[in-house]
Amino acid sequence: MHCAVISDVHANLEALEAVLEDIGKRKVKDVIFLGDAVGYGPNPNECIELLKDSCKVMLAGNHDCALTGLTDTENFNEYARLAIEWTSSVLTKPNLDVLKGLPLIKIFKKDNALLVHSTPKEPEAWHYLLTLKEAEINFHYFEQKICFLGHSHYPFIIERLLSGELITYKNNAEIGKAERYIINTGSVGQPRDKDPRACYVFIADEKIELVRVKYDIEKTQKKMHNAGLPLRLIERLERGA
Question: What is the 3-state secondary structure (H, E, C) of 176-198?
């Protein structure tokens, strides 16, 4: 595989542009998007259009499905619901139609990989995968060598050995011949692992790398403030939390 995998842009145009610029420098052939183009941030239309032009594959996330009416926002927190309401008021019909056409999962047979926003187990239920126990359960719900996912905004690489032992990597790993992997790409637009830089996954020469990219956070925050988005969402960008 030689590709970049991104997720959870959440209408953060500055972060998306910075990530795509970094990907371009690596001469990546394919860019894969795992969902949540919208929600939280101030540029939903611009981000959808840029993703559509830049990505080989686009999936739907829970915020995307909330906009299309496929997911109820009753489980969203107050700030997420307010952001969805604001996004609904500015989203154009062509971009809404793009979101409506996005699948929940995608299988790459050639690369022996599964793509999903949340988890292989019940992807439509929007579960989070945050622990090794949850990872062990989910390894039984896909047969491919690698599963790429997002949703939690916490990047990681989990390797499952033939013995069943699970090993976690924080920054990079080499793809073994017999091992299997669950890889969380982290978030482009709203990281939550206390590193405010945008995050994505780069794979080449059987190596997996979690890449961090600086972007103009203050510019995004000013846009959010002007749009009247919740202060909590504005402040968390600089903390990466």
Answer: CCCCEEEEECCCCCCCCCCCCCE
